[in-house]
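Deliverable D2.4 — example input (structure tokens):
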């Protein structure tokens, strides 16, 4: 894989950012996705994320990283009733997007980053007929 940096009429820095973004996208495609998701798993994951509260829970766990969060911290952060949160965590766990581990008396929930990357890889596999896709200018800030 070769990184080609080109200048755009808007300026060299924007061209460099676009080239790097395109390169990183292609690199992620090649390294993260190994065909480990199938259609049924994808539908299950997308169904779980298709609910506002579950999406918020999942995003909070992604932000928390590998440390994860306890249900009480999640409930407080998201202002969600604990029984409601428990239901949503169960759905995300069944979809394979979240893992749970007992640490002493606490349950620690974590986003399953391998599954998340697998989902993204499945959705974008063979994008642009297998070529490198051009990153939309609207997806970048002007900073």
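Example output (designed residues):
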């Amino acid at each position: 894989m070769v990184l080609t940096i080109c200048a755009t009429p808007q300026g060299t820095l924007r061209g460099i950012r676009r080239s790097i973004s395109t390169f990183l996208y292609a690199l992620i495609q090649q390294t993260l996705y190994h065909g480990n998701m199938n259609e049924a798993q994808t539908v299950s994951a997308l169904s779980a994320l298709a609910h506002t509260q579950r999406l918020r829970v999942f995003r909070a766990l992604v932000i928390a990283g590998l440390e994860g969060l306890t249900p009480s911290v999640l409930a407080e952060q998201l202002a969600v009733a604990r029984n409601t949160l428990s239901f949503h965590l169960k759905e995300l766990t069944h979809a394979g997007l979240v893992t749970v581990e007992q640490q002493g008396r606490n349950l620690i929930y974590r986003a399953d980053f391998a599954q998340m990357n697998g989902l993204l890889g499945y959705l974008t596999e063979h994008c642009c007929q297998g070529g490198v896709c051009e990153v939309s200018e609207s997806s970048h800030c002007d900073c």
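The chain has a mean pLDDT of 81.
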